[in-house]
Amino acid sequence: MPDESGADEVAVLAGGCFWCTEAVFLDIVGVKSVESGYTGGETISPTYKQVCGGDTGHAEAIRITFDPGQIRYEDLLEIFFATHDPTQLNRQGNDVGTQYRSAIFPQSPEQEEQARAAIAQANEQHGGRVVTTIEPAGDWYPAEDYHQDYWSGEGQRNPYCLATIPPKLSKLRKSFQDRAKSASAPA
What we know:
Layout (H helix, E strand, L loop, with lengths): L8 E7 L2 H8 L5 E9 L8 H5 L6 E8 L6 H10 L8 E2 L2 E2 L5 E3 L4 H17 L7 E2 L6 E2 L16 H17 L12
Parallel strand pairs: 6-7
Antiparallel strand pairs: 1-3, 1-6, 2-3, 2-8, 4-5
């Protein structure tokens, strides 16, 4: 149900490398901004190096600001589950460690309820193998500036990103044509 107040909402998701998830969600109609950062850990103001070390407890995550009048939280979750592998425990592809876990950080009781429903639906599609966790909304720490909107800059020259992001964008544009800003653009 769309928000009638006209107020933006926030979703916080972790699905592996934040460069990859950020690129996907920046291309969705109704998404106003996506910020890469860290959440779910103990260290105050962690650095990228600390989080990559795997000892802070944080996940690489994205904080999505969206217009619920254009896209619902449930739709964001559907795209989230379709554009990463929710069956890999503490990894996405070659990225291994708890910092790359699949997790949802609901910002309200309603989001938590919707996250539980989305995990149940994803489990039906993946034979009960989904390992995505629901974790408490905690402190948010923005990643360093060079991580923000990474794909549109440095990511275009990064071999890892070139191998990982275009297939995710292609899947988004094919499976969610009505939701992608650039559905007709080449991946």
